[in-house]
Each structure stands twice: as structure tokens, then as C-alpha cells.
Amino acid sequence: MKNLKKTLTPAALALALAFAIASVVLLVSGHNPLTAYRAMWKNFASLDGVVTAVNVGARYYVSAIAVAIALKMNVFNIGTNVQYQVAAMFGAVVGAAIDLPAPLHVAVTLFTAIVAGAIWASLIGILNVTRNVNPVLTGIMLNGVGLSLISYLMQSKWTNFRDPNRPEYGSTRPIPKSGQLPVFKIGDATIQSYVVIAVLVGMAFYLIVYRTRFGFDLRASGGNASAARSSGVNPKRMMMITMLISGACAGLIGMGIVLSANDQLSYGDRFPGMLGFTGIGIALLGRNHPFGVAAAAFLWAALDQGARGLVTVGIPGEIAVILQGSLLFIAVIVYAVWERKTLATIIREAAARTHAAKSQGASA
Amino acid sequence: MTDPTAGGGGTVAIELRDIVKRFPGVVANDGVNLRVAHGTIHAIVGENGAGKSTLMKTLYGAHQPDEGTITVNGVQQTFRSPKDAIAQGIGMVFQHFMLADNLTVWENVVLGNEPGTKFSLNAKQARARIRELSANYGLDVDPDAYISDLGVGQRQRVEILKVLYRGAKILILDEPTAVLVPQEVDELFDSLRGLVAQGATIIFISHKLLEVLSVADAITVIRAGKTVAEVPDPSKVTARDLAEMMVGSELPTPETHGNTIRDEVMLRVTNLDVAGMGKLALQNINVTVHAGEIVGIAGVEGNGQHELLESIMGLRPLLRGTVEFGGVDVTRWSTKARREGGLGYVPEDRQHDALVLTFPLWENSALGHQGSKPFSDGHWMDNDGCRAFTQEAIDTFDVRTPGTDVAAVALSGGNQQKLIVGREMLTKPRVLIAAHPTRGIDVGAQAAVWDAMRDAREKGLGILLVSADLEELIGLSDRLLVLFHGEIVAELDPAKVNAGELGSYMTGARKGDAA
Predict the structure, then answer these.
(1) Above 0.90 for ipTM, yes or no?
(2) CA B332, CA B339: separation in Å to the nearest integer?
(3) Which of 223-282 (A) contact B at CB < 8 A?
(4) What pLDDT was estimated at residue B290?
């Protein structure tokens, strides 16, 4: 309980400050903050609002976990934002082209996306391991390369990825019924079974990072690369495996959109292009912890959902972006300050208890 | 000289009265009294953690005492920062040098206190002033030499010059001999005597008692934050007397008894060459460690010890040569394979190479052994196994900690070191590569580490020991190898060599095979 309080206090503090900043912006631009927040709440606090936030939050969650796993070894995979798009395109193409029994069809499609994401991310790893290129630089550049690759493949006659029946969408062919992830009705709302995939990703993340030897090596490399090397960890191998896992996870980010019956069922022009970057922010906000990231992902999606209600009271929806942006900004600062304070407390307490043990030992 | 602070002996330069400094949960100084006479070398001795450093920080203004008074030359002072202290002529010479290697001596000395205008640096004036100071105080340093070309002893003199340049008349030296070989220590002491003859006052912090006795005019002993003894005439006490005052109990000695060396070769390094900056860091190194043998590597830091350890652990590429472990050629093995094969490792720099400071102790005790029992089954970590092992290490090596879940960063350096030694000893290695295993740990724990090494040696462990503590090297080793400029220049019998002789081999003054 004490731990929970310690974790939640800085997050709550950051949230309160972010709302304060957004309120100032609202006031300055001549709007009543209370009206705005009431409208946001109204749009979120319904069955449909919450379920939508869960559906969208699941994508954000997978996206953030993809970043978090690399961050555990202090590697910033800034390339997730295009890794997931490359993966979604190949997944959508393969999913539409094959004809298999339902579970196998879905599995092959997801597997394709995972492999595509992992391969695209592995380029960062290979360049780092063989040529010692900074992974952030390669990540950013490969984002550009990846988007060009996607537009080439989508337009090329040779690949024939585009659906000729729906030229106005500029998208791949639709996924047939057997290849779709099931969706479920809750009242008027529709929940995607992709949420289960997100939960499984979270559980896998937790087990790998905190329970396996690999996770130990991963965190040790992040905590002190030099000590990890002395302990027998091969840093190059670690870098490669981490990029592969991170990219594989990134491959799943967009698959809820591609495979859910109530969603796009294809990859194309309307496919969201910023889920990777959003995930980076959410990983930071959730401090790379499976539960923290889950809370952050839901909060982010809830703010998205609430933002749609702002138009009804004549306030620009961008106010939610300001809210999200300042939340992230403040959270990073608050966490850093909080961490330093906690560390000082830990050292003090350890010293005090050591001292107590010492004097006890002396008198014994 | 009209400077009143430059007066001769007799008058009191510094008086600290009833200094109390509390940190949350700890009283670091609990009523310390200190009187330092003008023109004397006054030593402050005490164990690690006795409160010496806290006291010195109080004196040079790094923090303020909670209680007590500081009187300098008869005037009570309050130091809000080191600036205030230097204004009263008090300067600190730190144990770890803070010099820019790529600048010259005079540039380093004036750094932060440059003569001239805002836009131009008066180099001529700076050089002249430094020459004058060097000559006055008998510190032989060329103002135009680059720091990178200077030896450790000369670098220390530059540090002293820095403080003198800022007008200090009272110098605090924190463990100044820790980094020096015996010959350099003698030179330092000559310089200190020269400084005192010119009217300076020196406060000398150390726990090396023989050195203290040879140089100090008066000694103050601190134990557990309190002044426990004042020795106005050091010629009347012995090192043992001082040690007893410091510890309150008998001092352990690092001595091995009997010959436990077996025929089996546990570690063999053959014809090893390792690349360094522009030249070979190691050249044609041959080392053999038998089961039940402790082989000591002596050498001034930076003569190839680091490269040798890393080569054996598989952390550094070799230009030439082989490493055999228990009769098996492991030259091409990964660090992981070597560690799993039973090669224990206590690295030189514990915070850099041996600990993840943010990890709790129980995770740190698995570091380096994370692939084997009791820490894991090779794939899944066994957290309970890690915790139980950690508790055993804590109990055996007296690691002072509130528990196994504390982050390693919360422990003092000595306690971190005890945990590392415990981890490497209790995992029962076949060969232990140990660098400075007792560096920075208190007397009681030092004895425990030595005992553990002796026991393991009797049971057939081969140990390669690198240490800067010559007494420890001579006492524990069965055989001594001296590394100088990346080569083994001598093999010595520790029974027939003393620290002074060993020092002359280490500085390259003597060469050859004396064993």
C-alpha cells in the first residue's frame, strides 16, 4: 500500500499540474475551464466512451510496451512509429491474400506483422552492432526510409497491394471474415478482442523483464552496461535481441485496426500514423512499468475520447493535446524530482537503520 | 612578511570545539575537539567512517556544523562555503586529483582564478607566481609541463600548488599517500616539512599509522564521531597504541601460513600482448596460478593491471597469447562461459564494473552468476534463492544494511565491497581474480575477507590478487609479480621482500629476478 501511494502521488501531482496549465490556456483564450472539462467528462463517461477508450488504449499500451522493453536496457527505439506501419501493411496484405481456417488465418497474419516489425527494427540493431551507429539516429532515419518504402510498395503495379475495388481509400484489400479478430457487443458499444492481445503482451513483458534471466541481463545492461558486461552479458547480442523483441511488439500495435470487424480491416491512407510516438510518451508517463503504462495508456485514450466532446461546447479539441503534452512534460520533471527525493530518503533510511544495527551490535 | 597568519609555532592556528554534525539518522561528528598549532603537521587518524571527512568538510566550509565553534587564528568564524574558508587561508587538497590532463601545470593552477583582465590571461604573471611558490615551498614542479606527462607524486604537488596559489596557509590533505608508492611518500613528506618550515600549517588525514608517526608533530584520534585521544608527542606512542585507540581492539594482519600450493595449474596466461594507447598495454605476460596459491600482482596503478584482469575475464581483445583455465584453453571463450566455468571476479572499480546501483542487494548478488543456482535455473530467476544467498553473504561478511531489498546505492562503499567479495567467495569459484578486495572496508571486515581468502586457498582455490595495499600483497601472496609499463619486471618471494623494496621495483628503480 505504501508503495502504491509512492507511485501514485507523483502521477497525481503531474495530472493536477497539467490540468492547471490547460485551465490557464482556456481562461486566456476566453473559455470557461469548467465548461470544457464537463464536456470532456460527458463524452467519456458513457459505456461507449469507456469502451472506445479501452480499444484505443490497448493500441497505445502495446505501443508503449514496445518502447519500454528497449528502454529497460537504456536503448531508445524511436523507430517504433514506422516499424508498426511497415508491419501493418505487410500483415494486411498477407491477411487479405490467404485463405485459411479462422484461428490459423489470424495467427499467420499476426505472425507476419510481428516478423515484419522485428526485421525493420533489426536494421537498427545490425547497424549499431556492426558499425556502432547510434540507434536513435538510425531509428529516425529508418522512419523516413520506411514511409518511403510503404508509399512505393502501395503504389507500385508490381506489388499490386492496392485494392482496385476501392481506389478512393488507397488501401489494401479487405481482410476476409476468417482472418478477422472477433469483436463483442456490450450494449451499444463494441469491444475488440485485440484488448486480450494487449493484456497478453503486458503479461509477457512482466514475466520476461522481471522473472527471466534474459530480463535480468536486460535490466542490468540498462542499469550499468559496464557491470553487465563484466557479469558475462554480451552487449551486442543483447542489443540485437532487444531490438528484435521491441520491433516484434511494435508489429502488433496497429493490428487491432487492421483486423477488427468494427475498424478499418485494411491498411491504407486512413491508417493512423502517430501511434508509435504516442507510445513513447505513454511509456515515459507509465515509467516503463506494465501497470503504470496500462494506467497511462487508458488515461491518454480517455483524454482523446473526452476531446471529441469539446466541439459541442465550441472549444477547439486541441485543448486535449495541450493537456496531454503538458501532462507528459510535467510528469517527466515531477518523476525526476520525485526519484531524487526517494533516493535521498532510501539512502538516509539505510544509513539510519545501519547505524541503529551497529550500536545495537556494539552493546550486545 | 607582515602577514600575521604566517607566524611560527606555538600559537593556535585552528581550534574546533565540540563540533556536532548530524545527518538524518546518523551523528557523523559527536563532539569533536581539535587544536592545531601554527607551523605544525597535525595528523587526524581514524577508521573509515569514523567521521574524519565530515570534520574536514566542516573545516573547509563544505557544510556547517550543527553545534560547536570554529576558531581560526584566534577569531571565531562561520564558513558558509569553501570560499569563506579560503579567505581565511584554509585550503583542501583532495585525495582524488582534479586536474585537466591536456593543460599545463600553470594553466591548471590558475584555473578558476586567472590573473589578467576579463579578456586576456596574464600567463607571464601566472608563471612567475608559480615559480615563486615552488621555490619558496620547495615544490619542484615545472609550470610549463603538461599534466599528462607528470607522475602521480608530481600531480599531487600541483594540487598543493593550486591551494597555495589561492593564498592558503593552512592545508588540509585528505589521505594524500593513498595513491603513492613508498618513494613518493618520502618525497611528499619532505615537501610537507618544507611547507611547514615556511610557516604553513598542515592537517593530515590518514589511517596509515606508520606514515603518520613518521611525519606528524601531533595526532588526534577519532573514533565513531568522537575525539578519543590527543597525542601531543607522537614519539611516545607506537603504531599499535594508535591502532588500539582507533579501533578499540586488536588489529588483524594479512598473513598466510604454510604452503598449500598444489601441482594442478588453475590459471595460465601465456605470452600475452594487449594493445594500449599508442603502445602495448601488456607485453609478453606469463602468469601461472596453481590450486591453493595466491599470486600477487604489484604495480603502480595504470601499469597494465586493469588490462590483465580484463584479458583474463574475456573483456578485452588480445593481440597475442593464450589464457588457460584449469588446463582448458579459454582464449576464445566469452566472459559468460568463463564465469560459468568458475572464474570469480572482484573488479577494481566496484561501482563501475561490479554493481548495478539501482538494483536491490539481492539482485546485485546474482550479478555475474545469474545463469546458475541458487540464482536461477538458467532461464528463470529464483528470487527466493537470490534473497537467501544475499542474506548469507550479509551475515558472513558483516555487510551493514537494513536488509536484502535495499538498493545498492544506499550502502557505503565499504559495505558494497563486502557484498561483492561475499558474492564472489560464496559462489565457490575455482579461480578468483581479485582486485583490491579490501579497499575501503573497515578493519573487522578486512580480517573476515582475509580469513575467507586464506580458507579458500587451503581448500585449493587459486587466487590472482591485485592490490595497492603492499602490506596486504606481501602478507597474503605466495608469490609476487611486479608489473611495470605493461611488463612483468620481477618475480619476488614475499617472505624476503619488504614494502620499500617492492616499491622500488614498482617504480622501475630496480629490475630483475630476485626470487
Answers:
(1) no
(2) 13
(3) 223-224, 226-234
(4) 95
Chain A residue numbers touching B25 (CB-CB < 8 A): 348-349, 351-353, 355-356
Summarize the confidence of residues B466-477 as an average pLDDT: 88
Beta-carbon pairs below 8 A across chains A and B:
119
Q: Cβ contacts of residue A122 below 8 Å, gap of 6+?
A: A240, A243, A244, A247
What confidence score (pLDDT) does residue B55 get? Answer: 87
Q: Report the C-alpha gap between B160 and B152 in whole angstroms.
A: 13
- Nearest neighbour of A352 by CB, restricted to B24, B336, B353: B24
Say how far apart CA A299 and CA A305 lie, in whole Å: 10
Q: Are strands B12-23 and B26-37 parallel, antiparallel or unpaired?
A: antiparallel
Query: Higher pLDDT residue, A44 or A170?
Result: A44
Say whether pLDDT at B503 is over 90: no
> What percentage of chain A reaches a pLDDT higher than 90?
77
Q: Which of A354, A355, A358, A359 to substitute to test the interface with B, most B CBs within 10 Å?
A: A354
Mutation for A interface: B54, B312, B352, B356, most A CBs within 10 A: B356
What is the DSSP code string of A132-169? ---HHHHHHHHHHHHHHHHHHHHH-TTT--B-TT-TTT
C-alpha cell at A80: 517504433
User: What residues have CB less than 8 Å from A79, skipping those under 6 apart?
Assistant: A120, A121, A124, A138, A139, A140, A142, A143, A146, A247, A250, A276
Q: What pTM, to 2 d.p., does this model score? A: 0.79
Q: Using an 8 Å Cβ cutoff, are A338 and A44 in contact?
A: no
Helix (H, G, I), strand (E, B) or coil at B290: strand
The 10s digit of each residue's pLDDT in B480-493 is 999 998 999 999 99
Task: From chain B, pick out residues whose CB is under 8 angstroms from the CB of A358.
Answer: 400
Q: Do B400 and A358 count as a contact with CB atoms less than 8 A apart?
A: yes
